[in-house]
Amino acid sequence: MSSVCPTVPASSLPDDRDVEPQNALTAKFTPAEWTALKKFRSTLSESFANAFPDNPDAGTTPYKLWGVTIDPTSPKNARVSVVLMKFLRARNLNPTEAQNMFISTLRWRQSFNVEAAMNEKFPDEVFGQLGKIYGRDKQRHPVTYNLYGANKDLNAVFGDVQRFLRWRVAFMEESITRLDFETVDQMVQIHDYEGVSLSSRTENSKNAASEASSLFQGHYPEFLSRKFFVNVPSFLAWIFWLFKPFLSAATLAKMTVVGSGHQTISAALLPIIDEGELPKKYGGAADDF
Length: 289
Known about the structure:
This protein is of the alpha/beta class. It has helices spanning 31-41, 44-51, 78-90, 95-112, 114-119, 124-127, 154-158, 161-176, 203-219, 234-243, 249-254, 262-269, and strands at 63-65, 68-70, 131-136, 142-147, 187-192, 224-230, 255-257.
């Protein structure tokens, strides 16, 4: 007796065009996120053309952003999906607003010349101790440290605000190289205010902080897993609470203001970062940087 295999209608077969490349991060996307991503992704050629109007081939030319190559003519790629999702999440899954943010970021990167900032040689005696990338948290997010009181020569650090911003952007870009956009796409930031006093609040330092904050909010979406403010003097702590009503619940959930003292800081950080990954000065067992 011969058996006859049923014929499967062609319409019910999976279409390769509908198959999305996946990794550990895209596997966590919700249906709503996938819907928004597909709409956003369909505008990539238009976005690149708008961002770079002087380049007639911009709409078809691959572009590398944070180490991930985005090909507007063939954008289906798991790591590309992770990068694009950052813009969507920053704009509440609104594809049009995400596209505007994306275009703005592309234009800013060109005008700021991010690549030149990354290759610039900054004086080690000025900036060498201000930022460190050290270890990972328990979820394998890299941990970055911003040490605001590490250089008491404020004129050297902030005298040239634009140079400070180029260094700060270069430090952020270096931190992002620790992300693979496959298993991890965010970082932990620890802002250490040890040694910061009222006299540290110069006009240049305030301008630099304001401009840096604006750059990161506008052009580095959803890179923050957690942010800790440690050794915060009382005169700065009240500023945070003053602005608390203006911060979203999602942002506030990622931020923790910690006082001073070995025990206080370690109590806040050790639940997030293993002892062997946390420097001794913060209550861990790792060598200090």
